[in-house]
Fold each of these.
Amino acid sequence: METKILSTSEYDIALAGEILRNGGLVAFPTETVYGLGADALNDEAVKSIYRAKGRPSDNPLIVHIAEKKDIIPLVKEVTPTAQALMDNFFPAPLTIILPKSDKIGNTVSGGLDTVAIRMPQSKTARALIRAAGKPIAAPSANTSGLPSPTRARHVIDDMNGKIDAILCGEDCEFGVESTVITLATDTPTILRPGAITKEMLERVIGPVAVAPAVLEGMKNNEVAASPGMKYKHYAPKARVMLVNASKEKYESFVNAKKDAFALCFENDDINIPKVTFGKENDDISQAKELFDALRQLDEMGAKKVYARIPHKDGVGMAVYNRLIRAAAFCIIDLEKPFTIGLTGQTGAGKGYVGKYLKELGFHILDTDLYARRVTEKNSPYLSILAKEFGNDIIENGILNRQLLADRAFASKENTELLNSITHPAIIELCKKDAEFPSVFDAPLLFECRGNEQCYKTIAVIAPAEIRKKRIMERDGITAGQAEARMNAQKSEEFYKENSDFTVINDGRDIKNQIRNILEEIL
Ligand code: TXA
Ligand code: MG
């Protein structure tokens, strides 16, 4: 099919309106992203949108109107809340979901009994809807799964030859799609954040909820409040990873990478290939640039991209929401020095799990070894211990371990005092050595509050009988001794409650359990 490349002149808009009236497909600019329009009341035309985009048929489309009153025939009822939103915002980058009327076919609504309505702020978009004389169904005008188009060139790249016409206008003002809010639930709920923020909405209609899937991945068995949540989105060909870090930490982390690209803010000091998306602390500029930046990365042939994480407030929520999806929820948290905190019951098989993680390329920080380093000859921590437990515990720079143990374990207070010195010291030493991705391997992970320094925690647990047998074999001790040791430990419930994930070592495939966990967190 030959695609007509049109301007936004009155003449071309009239021509495009006629194409839409006749059941054709026209891409057009809006203030958010370019849309791919068809007559919303013509089922065949709407079906061809899904075909051109390669979009799953259960993902409903937004119906665009040119006047507020045009909503009336499309919904069951304009509720007072809907009316308040329309009066205060329309025309705006805001989409309202309400129970649909009989006029809305199942193709537009993806089989749901609700419909999404939006009156765009863009004058060109509204002139086109008026020229067509119909409500216009329009998703973003990109190939399904790719970043939404914010420049006419993006639409030409994705849709040339597949649709009837493209209205080429200016770059989109906001650059992220409209805020989607459903009024079909008890509390109005944001399903997709955009330029109309939660705070702006709450000022008009009171409390507004944010669907959990907006900022986190969907859980495996969760039903999507909005079908669009469950599909892969905005994804460039490159593998994108979000890096949560201050400007300085991000710069030094990224500048040490080879064969990678940075997706950063304008003022970041980066010396590997980079693409920027707006300014730090300016979410509006980030929103405007993001999708174009993702497309540029593909054009530059990026394979691996480390992206600076934006804040999540105001319009930042929309930027963050798009970027974590582009990154398939992969976050490297440099503010948390350790990727995984590993702990578990004695005899449960923590060592085996650690070994497997090492094989997979994790850098293992064994706290038992670091505990020795804290008290080795000439360690700077010795003088701190001497101050609390007596100068005679050190002789010629060497710690008298027995003497320290006698004093430290004499009372509960003294033991706590010892821990309050050694635990932070161990964490400090490990932090200095940590390389990404790292495992902080600690039997007392929670007791030493090391978990607070870990992105995610894994506890290894196993049935008591299995652990007893292992401990007896490993340490050559009797059943009674093994039991005594096990009784001094925290319960299985403790580990389950405190850790993000548990690996159960009872004959089930451990490697498989670990791979599943890693898939979820990385
Ligand atoms: O800014 C925008 O909204 C752009 C421009 C072109 O107007 N359009 C847009 O459409 O982003 P699209 O199809 O790419 O995204 C629509 C989103 C999808 O995530 C879809 O699942 C959701 O809105 N949606 C549409 N109707 C819905 C409904 N009845 N219930 C729940 N979610 C709905
Ligand atoms: Mg889209």
Amino acid sequence: MDVYGLIGSPIEHSLSPPMHEAAYEALDLDARYVTLEPTDPVAAVNGADALGIAGLNVTIPYKQAVLEAVEPDAMAQRVGAVNTIDFSGARPTGHNTDVIGVQRAFAHHDVALSDQTAVLVGAGGAGRAVAVALRDAGARLRIHNRTESKAKALAADVDATWGGINDETLATACADADILVNATSVGMESDETPVPAAALHADLTVMDAVYRPLETRLLADATAVGADTIDGAWMLLFQGVAAFEHWTDHTAPVDAMNAALRSRLE
Ligand code: ATR
């Protein structure tokens, strides 16, 4: 039996176990996916290697810390964070499937990114993966963040423009944009939105990284003005799909993984 897992803290509400186990069941693979909450992430990666664990996902707050325990690939180095570790080689290798997860979520909805104008709200860990995903796919990008210095630093890294998050600057930025992505935690288990409804319009595709609730205030406001929406479960799904495909020789059973995820969200 192959054992996969997730390290992070807290991880008790993680949806990765049902998502990955649905894939094992759909493909009749002899595998399990467990959640682990170590205090020392580097020791945990070394220990997992010694134990013969097949693969690990890594979540907050350990995505940067595990870099010193793995051989990071080019994307993990670029993002400065690892969310997927593969133990099949001589040394554990570190990957970042958050970036491809964002790109595949847009592709799944037939939303082109190349030559599109995108606005990203948020410049933390999730924001960084979204920024790299959008820029690599050829979008023009403007990054807005509460702490403007973080927007500025991320914008310099990915060759984007930047600004703050007051209503006026967001409305100006969104006015001629095709894509809006929220990568802040605003809206998580609350009715708040990071972007005022007045800034939204029907020509936008709005993606939210928040998936609890699935329909955030931002996405409800976007639907109300006739914009297309992509909820946060799609990003979560496709980073998991890409991790699964790193670890196994199989094409991920996307529909089974999606159904498992969505049955646990509302
Ligand atoms: P993650 O890894 O999930 O991205 P993070 O790195 O802590 O988490 O980033 C959280 C993001 O949400 C940041 O962009 C943060 O803005 P700051 O950089 O100014 O802290 C943003 N955020 C969190 N709470 C916010 C709030 N109440 N209003 C606006 N932005 C908020």
